[in-house]
Every structure is written in structure tokens, then in C-alpha cells.
Amino acid sequence: MRRFGNVSIAAVTFVALLCGAWLLHRGTGTQAPPQPSPAQARAGGHVDRPAAAALPRSAPARVRIPSIRVDAPLMGLGLTPQGSLDVPPAARKNLAGWYAAGTAPGERGTAIVAGHVDNAEGPAVFFHLGALKRGSTVEVGRRDGSVALFSVDAVEVYDARDFPDEKVYGAAARPELRVITCGGRWSAGTGYQGNVVVFAHLTGSRPATGAAGE
User: Which of 90, 126, 175, 203 is 20 to 30 A removed from 140 (C-alpha atoms)?
Assistant: First the structure.
């Protein structure tokens, strides 16, 4: 379990919940989402962009990742009775969520955003997350009108059996963000067996230029 304030979250995220639902429905002939390449993992020679100072707490409203054409509203997520992170409604494929009992994106610490890779009808909000590159920008529109800007440090994929909860969920001294969806090995019986995780840190902020919500 990983503790955020007074709330703990299980090491598993949502690997068992509707991961690969579209592929299961359509069969293995359907194109799978991209998976991260080894080049996008954390590397010793990679130099992060300078971190920005933490922002005051404000709930996030929208996530945008221009390089993979993500532009989606965010809902608050809690925990399941088993202690794992809950998920947005599967029917709303262009909807992501954030762990509302934890760090808000832009605050000092580790903020968590999660969404489906697909649903029974087709690709969902984070279908292309595995194609994201180091140095790409993730924008989080916040309820206070600001936009938190994050730079991607790494994109990695983990098998559910070896999911590194300390690395993904652990406390951070600066404002950091994790964006998570399903990925890794795929089984025709159960779907994806792991998760794609994007690691990013805050590099700046700006006033919002559009609506904060949907």
C-alpha cells in the first residue's frame, strides 16, 4: 500500500478493469495501442527541464496532451473496496480521472491521473499514451483558472506482478505527475496484464485560455 496523507492506495491500479476490452470484443486482429519503447524509459544521460515552484492546491478540471491529441475532462477518483484506484465510467471513453484524496496536479508531491486505454466500442482517452515521448508537454487545466505545465521525464510499462508502487506513487520533493493506463502483455482471455506509466514534473504554469470543464 502507498499512503497519500491519510489515505492508502493499493499497489495495483486498475489493470484488471476493462484493460483491452475492445481487443477482447473484436479479436486479436484489431490494432493494439502503442507501447513505450526502451528509449523513453528513465535514462542516466537524460537531463530534466528545470522544475517550477509548486502551485497552491486547486482541483484539476481537464488534461491535455497535444502531441497525442488528448483533450479530456477530469473527474475525481476514490478507492475501490479492495483499496485500489477506481476508474472513470467505461462508457465515457474521453474522460480521465485524478486521485482526489491525494496531491492535486501542480502541488508539491505526486499527483495521479488515470484513464482507460479502450472500452468495448474502441480506443479511449489514453489509447496513444504509450507513444508519448520524453520532453513532451502535459497540460492540466485547474479550477482556479491556471494551467499547470508538466514535462515528460519517462514513459514506462510494467507487468502487474512487478508494478513498482514506491516508484510510481511515492512522495516527491517537487510537483510531479503520473499518468496511468493499461498496457504491457495482452491475453485473449483477460486483456492487458500491466500498466503504461508516464512520469512528468512541473515546469511552469499559465492562465487558462479555454473552458476549465467539459
Answer: 90
Q: Which residue in 144, 73, 152 sits closest to 115, CA to CA? A: 73
What length does the chain have?
214
Helix (H, G, I), strand (E, B) or coil at 165: helix
Distances from the Cα of 43 to the Cα of 11, 38, 155, angstroms: 24, 9, 11
Confidence at residue 9, expressed as pLDDT on a 0 to 100 scale: 55
Reference 126, options 37, 20, 7; nearest CA is 20
Q: How many CB atoms lie within 10 A of CB 197?
A: 25
Q: Checking DSSP bridges between strand 122-123 and strand 118-119, what pairing results, if any?
A: antiparallel
Each residue of 8-26: pLDDT tens digit?
555 445 443 445 556 555 5
* CATH of segment(s) 2-30+49-207: 2.40.260.10
**Number of CB atoms found within 10 A of residue 54's CB:** 16
DSSP secondary structure letter of residue 134: T
Domain boundaries, the chain: 2-30+49-207
Is the C-alpha dihedral spanning 122, 35, 95, 139 positive or negative? negative
**Pairing relationship of beta strands 7-9 and 60-65 according to DSSP bridges:** unpaired
What is the pTM for the complete model shown?
A: 0.85
Assess contact for 180 and 200: CB atoms under 8 A.
no
Neighbours of 129 (CB within 10 A): 27
